[in-house]
Each structure stands twice: as structure tokens, then as C-alpha cells.
Amino acid sequence: MLKIRNLVGGYTNTPIINGVDFEISKGEFFVLLGPNGSGKSTIFKLITGQLPCQKGEISINDKSLSSFSKLEKAKKVAVLSQEVQISFDYTVEEIISLGRFPHQKGLFKTLSVEDKEVIEEVMEITKVKQYRDTQFRMISGGEKQRVLLAKVLAQQPEVLLLDEPTNHLDIKHTFQMLDLLKEWQQTKGLTIFAILHDLNVAALYADRIALLHKGSFLDVGDVDTLRKESQLETVYEVKVNAQSHPTVPKPQLLMTPNHSKTKSELLNFDTSFSITKNDQFIHVQFESPLRTISNGVIGEGIQWLKHFCNFHVEKHYNGSNPKQDLQKWMEKYEIPFEQSVAMMTAVRLEDVVIVTKQIEDIKVIAVVTAGTGNAVDITNSSLSQSHEKVGTINSMVFIDAHFTDGALVNGFMSATEAKVKALHDLNVKDPETNTMATSTSTDALLLAVTQQGKETQYAGSGTVVGKVIGQTVYEATHKAVQKYFHRLQK
Ligand SMILES: Nc1ncnc2c1ncn2[C@@H]1O[C@H](COP(=O)(O)OP(=O)(O)OP(=O)(O)O)[C@@H](O)[C@H]1O
Question: Which Pfam families match (predicted)?
């Protein structure tokens, strides 16, 4: 559709753009990325004709752009650039109507019924109808941006060239504008070439991106190109961490600031937390957030969290929305649930077991409540739904170390293996099958790590840290299950 071959150009004899090649297919959303001064606007101006090309060829459907008449070009290509100057006192509707100019026929160009319909449609979708009779100069920067988008959409182009179209827009209007463009791309086959600054926004909307570095393309590809951290670090000179969006299968980038923790900010593990214990809840609170992995009802996944709670529920608790219940209870006790992991148990909280262990310089604390009324052999195929008994094992494991996310997963496995061993040694059985239990049906586990000291990449059973986790969790689980057995006998 839009083909750029060997584009060379700039402002003087020394070119800024040094031979750029790319092709955008019909209906594709292509985004140009690059740091300040890399040449994005210069490429844009060379394509739109604001700057003459020193070399190269720009064509649409294999026809050179320079061979199009001005009117023909305006029917094919619409441009929304940074440098729009509206000097007259036009109303919003008049500005948008200008977009219909290339489509108007006859000597005295007047708006046809079709023109008016298109203008109404674009005003509707860009949500500017309410300002239709307002002078353009009287509306805000963001509103102006939406009006100018309405104008280029009214042009009904095949190709849309956009230079930072979301400049001036707040988050809501940025997403609204890009959703709208995406919809036109998908329903009307609109081809889009856009300069965007925000890498994360680009990752969510672009079909392909090009990364511009000092006037040349360093890489072109789908949005997963943005997962190449070292490439981004070279271009932007910031530390980048590529992650995945939690609900959309697209990369998202996290930037790490250069400033690191000062010595005074380092946590003294032994004195950095407090534990509140009563009949209703156990609450472990740290001074600073810990890197946490958990399957808690609240605070699931991998996050940085400060509060770790285990709430007592009645034996027959069968809430339809445990998350909501927990939030309610936490609000009551003024524990911020957005910064917490929260689990629930019917086990008596006074039977909690806390075990601390240190091997070499790695310190681990395990806080475990246990009941085995719902003990299950995971290899047993029957799916019993009975939760009538007091029986769940909730484990909180705090570690003074520095784990990668992989080590967190390793540590989660190590803690689970240790729990299974404790159940085995205590001869806990699945009542349905009378075989060895591997867990209870509703166990919860969290691992929270201070992220201090040397980085640990593995925390499995073959490592010292894995062993400390294993031994601490084993001892705490073993004692907690024994306490549960003693209570049953009372
Ligand atoms: N009008 C101009 N005259 C001379 N040089 C210019 C002009 N405009 C830009 N340049 C130079 O061209 C280079 C590329 O600038 P350009 O505006 O294309 O970068 P950009 O990637 O769009 O940057 P930004 O993200 O800051 O908008 C820069 O070194 C800049 O100083």
C-alpha cells in the first residue's frame, strides 16, 4: 500500500534520515518509535511533502506520490501533524467541514447531503458534537486534537499519517482516540502510520513498529520486538524491563530509575515487621513492600506488598464472594487490601506456628496455620466438593534475600514440596481413598522476599536457599498439623 524506498533527507545538505525503507500494508497500523531527535518528525515531513526528499521514492499502490495531483492526494492521504495553525475564527464544525473539501464537486463547492452525513458521523465518534458551534480557539488543547482528528477522518482517506496524535490528551482520551482509530482500521481498512512516544501505548495498538535510532531503522517488526530489552536500552539509554500485560497478550515495559537504595533505606529484617495475632486474624506488617508471590484470595500473582493476613472464618463459611468479604473485614481493621495478601482459614488462629531459620546469610520465617480435614491426594481422580471440615494449610514464608521472578517460582515449589513431606511424615491421608494426602483442597501459600543482597536465580531443592525454605516450611507445617491433631483429641 504505502511504500517508502531509500528515503534520504533533512534540513541541510547533511541528511538527518539516511536511507530508510519500509512498506505498510493496507489496513495496517504502523507505529514509528524513537527517542527525541532520532528523526521521527523529519521522516514524517519527508513523507507528507513538508520537506523535499534528497533521495528515495514514496508510492501508494505502486504509484509515485509525486505523480498525484493535490486533490487526488488529498482523497488518498490525510495528515494530522504537530504544526497545525488555525488562524481564523472558524467554528469546530467549519473546521471539520474543511476535511470534505477534496470530495466536493462543481465550481461552487458546497456541502452535499453525503458530506453532511460524514461530518455528523465523525463529530459523533470523536465526541466533539457539543462544541460544534464553538470557536476552535475557545476549546482546550485536547479538544482541539479531537476536532483535528474529526477533520482528517471526514476526509475519508485510505492512508492516515499522524504525528503524535495523542499529544495533549489525557489517558481516557488517548485510549478513546486510539480505540477509534483501531476500529476504523479494522472496519474500513484504514492504513495508519503514526509517531507515538509512549512505548506501552504503541505495544497495545500497533500491528508493527519501527525503532528509529540516529536517522536509521534499528529494527522493524511486530510489537514483540519491544521485548528486546538491550536494544531499547541502547536507543533510549534507560534500564528497561519487558513484562506482559496481565490481560492482553502484549508486551509492556517497565523503566527502572537510576537511583538505588541508600544504606539507610536497607531493611533490618529482624526489626522490620510486626505481627498482630488475635481470634479474628493474623496480620504481618512490614515497613517496606516485599516482592511477593501468592495464590491468596487477595494479592494473587507476583506483586510488591507490605501486609500479609490470614483471616479466621466459621467452619461452614461458604461466602459467594470471599474477596469482597475479606475486603470488608480488612477495611474494618484498617488494613489496606490493595497492599496485602489475604487468605482465610477455619483453623483456630491461636494454633499458629512460627519458625525462624538461618543458613549462611539467608534467613527465613514461616507462619503456618494447619488443619487437614480436607486432605486430598491430588492423584486421586474423584472430585469431592465437601468442605465441611476444618482443614486448610495456610503458609506465609518471609525471606531475607534477593530473588529473580524465576527464583520466586522455584521457592514456591520448594515450600510446596516441604509441605507434602510434612503431610507424608505425619501420615495424613485422603479420607476418600485412604492414600497419602499431598495437600488440603484449599491451601494458600505466599512467599515474600526483601530483595536485599546478591541476586538469587534459583531457589529449588538443589540450592541452599531452597533448603532453608524447605526446612523452615517443613518444621512449621509439621508442628501446625500436630497442634491440629492435639486439638481434635481434646
Ligand atoms: N527545522 C529544523 N532545522 C534544522 N534541523 C532540524 C530542524 N528540525 C529538526 N532538526 C534536527 O533534526 C534532527 C531530528 O529531529 P526530529 O524533529 O526529526 O526528531 P524527532 O525524533 O521527531 O524528535 P522528538 O521526539 O523530539 O519530536 C534533530 O537533530 C533536530 O535538531
Answer: ABC_tran, CbiZ
pLDDT digits (tens, 9 = 90+) for 228-287: 999 999 999 999 999 999 999 999 999 988 776 555 567 789 899 999 999 999 999 999
**Domains recognised in the chain with CATH numbers:** 2-256 (3.40.50.300), 272-489 (3.60.70)
Cell numbers for 9, please give them: 533527507
CB-ligand 1 contact for 40 (6 Å cutoff): yes
Q: What are phi and psi of 449, to 5 degrees?
A: -125, 135
Instruction: Measure 62 CA to ligand 1 centroid, in angstroms.
Output: 29
Residue among 61, 24, 80 nearest 207 (CA)? 24
Work out the angle at residue 166's Cα, subtended by the Cα atoms of residues 163 and 169, and round it to the nearest 5 degrees.
Answer: 145
Separation CA 161–CA 1 (nearest Å): 13
Model confidence pLDDT, tens digit, residues 204-222: 999 999 999 999 999 999 9
Question: How far is the C-alpha of 448 from the C-alpha of 37, rounded, in Å?
Answer: 43
Beta bridge partners of 311: 281, 344
Nearest one of 350, 297, 298, 293 to 487, comparing CA atoms: 350
Q: What's this model's pTM, rounded to 2 decimal places?
A: 0.85
Residue nearest to atom 27 of ligand 1 (CA): 36
Atom nearest to 43 CA in ligand 1: 18
